[in-house]
Amino acid sequence: MRSLVHYTIVLLLLAAGADAGDSCCKKRLQRLIPDAAAVPPDVHDGQPRLVVDPDPANVRPESWDDEDDGPWEPEMVPNPAFAWRPPIVPNPEYTPPTLATELEEEARKAAPWVVLGVGLSALIEAAQLPVEALAGLLRCAGASPSLVYFLDTS
After folding, report:
1. 88 has which bridge partners?
2. Are 115 and 15 in contact (CB under 8 A)?
3. What percent of the chain shows pLDDT beyond 70?
4. What pTM did the predictor assign?
């Protein structure tokens, strides 16, 4: 039992040192991006980009004079039903990752799982469950008879 505690402590220390890397936290440059220079059209899919403000206060003032003030135009607001998206273009700042960078990133992703697998293997080894007890547990759990027979004969 004492060795099981030691293996558990080693497993926890190894898991604490496992680093998933900063690849999940920092923003990577994307290969394709929305075109920043694209200008939305005035009408898209039958929906205007701007609509008259539905606010009841958005009416022509009584003191408005077309000759002095020019023609009155109601205030326009963005249309919530306007669903235009800018086109996607290649990112000029994007450089594909090198093979070494990709391998390092994959190793960082796998490190916690490798540590967990090694730790669990060590815990199972430390438990040293006798084969007879394992066969009995499998028999109670409804394991296939051939597996139980294999464990009973070994």
Report:
1. 34
2. yes
3. 64
4. 0.41
HEC readout, 30-79? CCEEECCCCCCCCEECCEECEEECCCCCCCCCCCCCHHHHCCCCCCEEEC
Query: Residue 14 to residues 5, 110, 142: CA-CA distances in angstroms?
Result: 14, 14, 36
- Tell me the per-residue pLDDT of 42-75, one tens digit each, with 9 for 90 and over: 999 899 999 988 888 888 888 888 888 888 888 8
Q: Is the sign of the CA dihedral 145, 130, 15, 1 positive or negative?
A: positive
SS3 152: helix
- Contact of 115 with 14, CB cutoff 8 Å: yes
Tokens of 102: 């990709």
Q: Are 10 and 120 in contact (CB under 8 A)?
A: no
Residue type, 128: Q
Query: Which position has the token pair 């000759």?
Result: 67
Q: Which neighbouring-strand residues pair with 78? A: 50
Per-residue confidence (pLDDT) for residue 124, from 0 to 100: 73
